[in-house]
Input
Amino acid sequence: MITCYFLQRQKEKDICLSPYLDTDKTGQWNEEDQVELKSSGMLTKEQKDEASYALYEAIDFSVDRWIQNKQYIPRLLLSALVFTVAYFFLSLVIRDPIPMVDELAISTGLTIWFWSYLAKRDTRSSLAQRRRYELKLRSGERNDVIDEQLFSIETYLDEISAEDPMELVHSLCLVSEEPLKPFSYDGPTETTRELSSLLSVYLHLYDKNLYRTALKVHNIRVQHRSDPHLAARLFHQGMQQRLDLGLLTLVVALMEI
Output
């Protein structure tokens, strides 16, 4: 079973989480795996299309990475061969006043071009195309499941996003004595763990700054150490809309469960 989640937000872009972004698992799925998309309620046609686009995009990304990793050793050996042949050919055929410089530069350029060519060719190979087709076919036949427990997560995300930014970052970084708004979820713990894992993969790809910041905040909270400088930086980034403070808080809250 491939379980995906669609989190709806009031004032921000909806979030579609799926294990497809975890390229380490791409080769483990098979044609019989069913796809399930969980949401807190019925999705509109626009939201269903948005979810389909996000899943297809994630599949394209994971298959490209999977086939490139699978073909890494052959591509490395062939590229090394191209560099060696090009270098010795240029060294023997072309005579120049500065030995090695031109040969190294041209050979390196040819190797980079050949590496890129092979990488693109791999993503268009029959193996990659078949894998991509199988996963997209299953994704298109997914089952949309309503999980009302996800509503509490969406509510928490919307409420925390509407809080005063200064008070929020002070609570996050333990600058003030005001505790962070408690996160409550009545569903199974496995779901929150899975959501936390999928969010980490999602942010590691689409918003590395937020993911690294969440790790820093989680670290100081585990150590019970106040960090006013980090709080000031978070507030500044939030005011410039370079950091989603609501999503940051949700990630930290999930890490603490």
User: Anything to note?
Assistant: The two ends are 24 Å apart (CA to CA). The chain has a mean pLDDT of 82. The chain has ten helices and four strands.
